[in-house]
TrEMBL record:
Name of the protein this chain belongs to: ABC-type xenobiotic transporter
UniProt key word Ribosomal protein: no
E.C. no: 7.6.2.2
SMART domains per record: AAA
First-listed, main subcellular location of the protein, grouped into a coarse class: membrane
Protein's membrane topology: Peripheral membrane protein
Keyword Cell inner membrane among UniProt keywords: no
GO molecular function terms listed in the Swiss-Prot or TrEMBL record: ABC-type xenobiotic transporter activity; ATP binding; ATP hydrolysis activity
Any one of the GO CC terms: plasma membrane
Region Disordered: start-end pairs: 311-338
Keyword set, alphabetical order: Antibiotic resistance, ATP-binding, Cell membrane, Membrane, Nucleotide-binding, Translocase, Transport
Subcellular location: Cell membrane
Record organism: Streptomyces sp. R39
Family: Belongs to the ABC transporter superfamily. Drug exporter-1 (DrugE1) (TC 3.A.1.105) family.
Amino acid sequence: MPGAIYAEGLVKTFGDVRALDGVDLDVPEGTVLGLLGPNGAGKTTAVRCLTTLLRPDSGKAVVAGLDVLKQPDAVRRSIGLSGQFAAVDEYLTGRENLQMVGQLYQMRARQAKARAVELLEQFHLTDAADRPAKTYSGGMRRRLDLAAALVVSPPVMFMDEPTTGLDPRNRQQLWEVIQQLVSGGTTLLLTTQYLEEADHLAHDIAVVDHGKVIAQGTSDELKARTGGERVEVVVHEREHIRTAAEVLGGFGKGDTTVEEHTRKLTVPVTGGAKLLAEVIRELDSRGIEIDDIALRRPTLDDVFLSLTGHVAEEKTEGADEQGNKKTTRKDSRKETVK
C-alpha cells in the first residue's frame, strides 16, 4: 500500500533541462523523508509537482491517498506547504496573516481567530502577534510562514529548505517545531542541503542529483556508504607521505586518499578511538612526525562526493532546475593510493 506521499517515475522537463528524471518516492504515514541534494538537483521541482504547483510530464503521484493529477483541489485541501521563502503579507500583523489563511480555507471567523492564537503561542510569536510582519526577523518570518501552513492541521506537510539562511538559534527552534508536528502524526517531506538537518529530523533520506534519486536510506546507512569513520593524518614532512600511506593502508577498510599539497592522508576505518591510538603508535615507530591526526565521521561533502563525484561548495557555471543560468559544483580531484 502506498505511503502518505508516493511518487513513481516522475518526469519534468524545462526546455532542454530534465529537472526530474524518473523520481520514485514512498513516505510512510507519520514519518519524515529528507530530500537531500545540491542546488539544482531537482528537490524543489519534486515538491512543486507533489503539491500541484507544477504538472509533471509523466509519472504517478499520490498524496494523502489522493491522485495529484486527477484530484489537485482535494490534494491542496489536505496538505501544508512551506516554501524556500516566507510567503507572508508584510503589511498584515502576524495574527492577521493567520486569520486570513483561515478565512481562505473557509473557516468561521471565531474558529480562525482561535486557531491563530493557538499557533502564535506554539511558534513563540505571541509577543509579536500584533506587529506588521515586515518588522519580523528572518527566523520569525519563517516561523510565521510555517504556522500559516498549519492553520488547517494538514495530515501531510511539505517543507522546502525551511532553515536555509537562518542562524543556529532559529534553526534549532524550527527543528523543535518540526519534531512536535511529527510526534503528533504529521507526515513530512523535507528538502534540505544540510546532512545534519536530515540526520536530526528524518527517518529516511533520499539523495537527489540531476533529477534522479541516486541513494536512499537512513542517515547512518548513507554515511556507511561513504566509508563510515575515517582517519585523517597530516604529516610534517612531504617525503613521509608514501610511508604514512603504507601505514594507514594496514589499518584501513578501503583506499587511502592523499592530498599532496596539504600533506593530508585519509582512510576509511572501523574501530574508533582504540584504532586511532594504534595508528599513532605505528606512525611513531616508523619515525613519521605528524602535525595533526583525527578520527572523523562523514560530512555533507563526503556524502555528495561519494555519491555524485563532486562537493557542495565548489561552483561552476551551469543551469538550475528550470534552465536558468546558475552555479553548480565542480568535480573534486584527489589522488587515491591503492
